[in-house]
Design goal:
The protein is an alpha+beta fold and 226 residues long. It has one domain. Helix content is 34%, strand content 26%. Strands 1, 2, 3, 4, 5, 6, 7 and 8 form an eight-stranded antiparallel sheet that branches. A hairpin with a 5-residue loop joins β6 and β7.
Length: 226
């Protein structure tokens, strides 16, 4: 991959060999260091693609207010310091006085090399599985440009909540998406769809549009780094 060449170039320019860290002698990787310096919501466009596709009306319980999700940089989160996270509660608007709410988190997780990233992919997959709802509805494996990845859609047994988890790896970095939202109550009762999208359309949009766009955004940004 182009990233491998970029690592070699960066190490040579800095006068370093792989494994050297001028600060403390620990493992040093310029690509991981670069990603860790990013502002996650800037890279992820304030999750605006989700706002537009899902019809999110406002962000809920965020520190920055209803117009934006919270941006949590690398090492800033106590529960997941390895990740850069753009996240917030979501309000999808009431339907016949019934609130439709949920939560959305998109994380970028960099590691020092592909082997470490592959190991942590397996570790983090356990948590993706644990966050599933009672009923698994869809499981789709991801392919190129991802080295590994899966989309898992599930729901509460009552149908009250939809859950969607994505974990994917490209080389030494991961993307993790955790989405939940109020289930289609009226559609389940035989009425009109509750949302401007079906679950199938949401899954297709994630697989064919959103995930490829994030992959390109991250790798294009890395290509500019020297």
């Amino acid at each position: 991959m182009a990233i491998a060449a970029l690592v070699a170039l960066s190490l040579t320019a800095c006068g370093l060999t792989d494994g050297d860290d001028p600060a403390n002698g620990e493992s040093f990787d310029p690509i991981a260091t670069e990603i860790r310096s990013w502002e996650p919501c800037e890279v992820l466009e304030d999750l605006r693609p989700f706002v537009d596709f899902m019809g999110i009306e406002e962000w809920v319980a965020t520190k920055v207010g209803p117009e934006h999700p919270d941006s949590v940089g690398w090492s800033e989160a106590n529960l997941d310091p390895d990740a850069l996270n753009c996240a917030g509660g979501i309000d999808l608007g009431a339907l016949d006085s019934m609130p439709r709410v949920g939560g959305l988190s998109v994380k970028i997780v960099p590691w020092e090399d592909d082997e470490k990233a592959a190991t942590m992919y397996d570790d983090r997959m356990r948590f993706v599985e644990e966050r599933k709802g009672d009923v698994e509805d869809v499981r789709t494996e991801l392919s190129d440009p991802w080295d590994a990845g899966v989309l898992i859609a599930s729901s509460a047994e009552s149908g009250a909540t939809e859950y969607l988890g994505v974990l994917a790896r490209d080389g030494r970095w991961l993307i993790e998406i955790d989405l939940s939202f109020t289930g289609e109550y009226f559609a389940q009762q035989g009425g009109d769809p509750d949302y401007p999208f079906t679950n199938g359309e949401l899954h297709q949009w994630l697989l064919e549009t959103y995930l490829p766009s994030v992959n390109s955004a991250v790798n294009d940004r890395l290509a500019e780094f020297e």
